[in-house]
Amino acid sequence: MTPAISVAGLSRRYRGQLALDNVSFDIEPGSVTGLLGRNGAG
Fold first, then answer.
1. Which helix (H) or strand (E) holds 2?
2. How is the chain split among helix, strand and coil, in percent rounded to 5?
């Protein structure tokens, strides 16, 4: 099945701080996915 969302090699800095380093993932259609951050943000 083709992923609804596909992320490959994502890196991100905020104010010089590395927050994401080479993150990869797929989210399949119909799945329920949550991403949580610091203090429940997300």
1. none
2. 5, 50, 45
pLDDT per residue of the chain (42 residues) written in tens, 0 to 9: 899 999 999 999 999 999 899 999 999 999 999 888 777 675
DSSP bridge pairs for 13: 18
Report the distance separating Cα 14 and Cα 6, nearest Å.
22
- pTM summary value: 0.70
Torsion, CA 35, CA 10, CA 30, CA 34, rounded to 10: 0
Please, which residues bridge with residue 6 across strands?
26
User: Residue 11 in contact with residue 23, Cβ under 8 Å?
Assistant: yes
